[in-house]
Amino acid sequence: MKTFQGRVVTPGTVSAKALVSHGGLNTLASFQNALQFGDKEAKCGDQNNPDLYGKPMVGTALCLPQTIGSTTGGLVLYCAAAMGRQPACMLFSKPIDSLAAAGAILADVWVDSVTMPVVDSLGDEFLEYVKDGMNITVKDGGIVEVE
Predict the structure, then answer these.
(1) Per-residue pLDDT band at 100 (split at 50, 70, 90)
(2) What distance in Å separates the CA atoms of residue 26 and residue 143, rounded to the nearest whole number?
(3) Can you give the pTM of this predicted structure?
């Protein structure tokens, strides 16, 4: 087991299986099928992300460097959470961008039934270490355990 310390963007504790992307997450392309076409597993629809394409994102510990894409990213993330199609948590190796942070914070504040802890600034070593299917536990204070 290895422990990483990051910065809390939205609080919460959770345990989930890791789903890892080494490239940026295009939020709109990734969640489009879940939002527009009712895909309840939120299988990643971004063909330009070979790490995630076609894999279900709901309930996973989504591990990524950063988000990329259009200015709709925050709204897409909020909508996914409002529809119950969000990851269990989002873990960023780099500092989160303002759009993804806005979506996560809005979901945390406005969607009563949803908790999606978000931790950023976990470092490059985090993404080098974590692999798909590993057990991730997010604890209070931005502590992330990977086993």
Answers:
(1) very high
(2) 25
(3) 0.97
Query: pLDDT (tens digit, 9 = 90+) per residue, 55-84?
Result: 999 999 999 999 998 889 999 999 999 999
Q: Are 94 and 52 in contact (CB under 8 A)?
A: no
Distance, CA of 130 to CA of 69 (rounded, Å): 24
**Helices 98-110 and 73-82 sit at what angle, rounded to 10 degrees?**
30
Distance CA 121, CA 35 (A): 28
Confirm if 120 and 147 have CB atoms less than 8 A apart: no
CA distance 13 to 48: 31
